[in-house]
Amino acid sequence: EPQISQESIASFHEHLGKSKRILALLGAGLSASSGLPTFRGKGGLWRTHQSMSLATPGAFNEDPGLVWQFYSYRRHMSLQAKPNPAHYALAALAEKIPGFQTLSQNVDGLSPRAKHPPKQLQLLHGSLFDLKCADRHCGYIREDYTDPIVPALAIPTSGADLTSNETREQDISDVSVSIPKLKHHELPQCPKCKKALLRPGVVWFGENLPFTVLETVDDYLASREKIDLMLVIGTSAKVHPAAGYIDKARQRGARVAVINTDENDRPPRGWNDGDWFFCGDAAQILPELLK
Ligand code: BJW
Questions:
Q1: What pLDDT shows up at residue 71?
Q2: Can 87 be counted among the known catalytic residues?
Q3: Same fold, 1-36+83-125+208-291 and 39-80+126-202
């Protein structure tokens, strides 16, 4: 079993120093110390809903108002959050090593905001800040950082405090705050086909990952040059095809380093000789590891 120690940090540094082609798989744990909840484990509940059960095309078809409120809340939280030292350390590594490619499962926009070079950042699961037509035959898509997108999606505020004149945003992740039932016409509408709703440009279960992203990753993996190192950061590595890239990198020669707070979250097919496991907060460990 890989262990964290001064010795393992030294051996990692030695290998990193020789590495030219590096792949990283990023997950929600990378943004945890920026204050954004993860999907599985204790952050994985939005009110009474399991986050995973809202991230499906079926949930959106059944109750687009509920799913939109979940995503509007996540957009709002992501815009309030700031990239942490791990996002910046990865962006700096990308600047330094042209053969470093980052596969992010995160949709929160924090890596782009840390100025991670876009050509070295593949957003496997899309972005909260892409809006696309829910009818895929229409094809409309735009980048959009407005918050809220439509007035009905504004975070409700609690009644004005008469002494201070201030209103406070209610925490709509709190179960005791009632969720308004939104009407279809109050939700974001597609300006192109004028028929369907807009939806978040993220990848839900059962949907394909963005074609150009898959193509870029496949090209990287198909290169005859070996991959030296695979970094697996803050992900439970349970969702495919993302998690499958760990083994693909191994097959291309990569040694694997996992950075995670939970020692039970191991790569899908377990540990290999020569793997590293650095247990702890990515925001603390990565700047140390990648310097
Ligand atoms: C810290 C930390 C700190 C905490 N520091 N660490 C092959 C086998 C089996 C199934 C499939 C397969 N191929 C396809 C499937 C089906 C499905 C799938 O994978 N199912 C599995 C769950 C079994 N995959 C798909 O449907 C994909 N589409 C696809 O393959 O299309 C073709 C196809 C379709 C149908 C059948 C077959 C093929 C699409 C997957 C899309 C996933 N989308 C989501 C939602 C995005 C939108 C949104 O954000 O709402 O993406 S699901 C959710 O999980 C989100 C995440 O990106 C993703 C991964 O989660 P992540 O990042 O790992 O988060 P957590 O919470 O799980 O883990 C956090 C980790 O951080 C933990 O380990 C903590 O310990 C750690 N941590 N704090 C360091 N401070």
A1: 95
A2: no
A3: no
CB atoms within 10 A of CB 6: 7
Indicate the SS3 state at residue 55: coil
Residue 244 banded pLDDT, cuts 50, 70, 90 = very high
Q: Where are the domains of the chain?
A: 1-36+83-125+208-291, 39-80+126-202
29 token code pair: 């744990």
**Which two tokens mark 133?**
């037509």
260 lines ligand 1 (CB under 6 A): yes
Superfamily of domain 1-36+83-125+208-291: TPP-binding domain (3.40.50.1220)
How big is the chain by its Cα radius of gyration, in Å? 20
Give the C-alpha separation, 285 to 268, whole Å.
22
Q: Which of 125, 184, 185, 240 is catalytic?
A: 125
Q: Is the CB of 107 under 6 A from ligand 1?
A: yes
Spatial neighbors of 109 by CB under 8 A, at least 6 apart, are 78, 79, 127, 128, 129
This prediction's pTM: 0.94
**221: helix, strand or coil:** helix
* Nearest ligand 1 atom, CA 27: 62
**Is domain 39-80+126-202 given the CATH code 3.40.50.2000 in the classification?**
no
- Range with lowest mean pLDDT among 32-41, 56-65, 146-155: 32-41
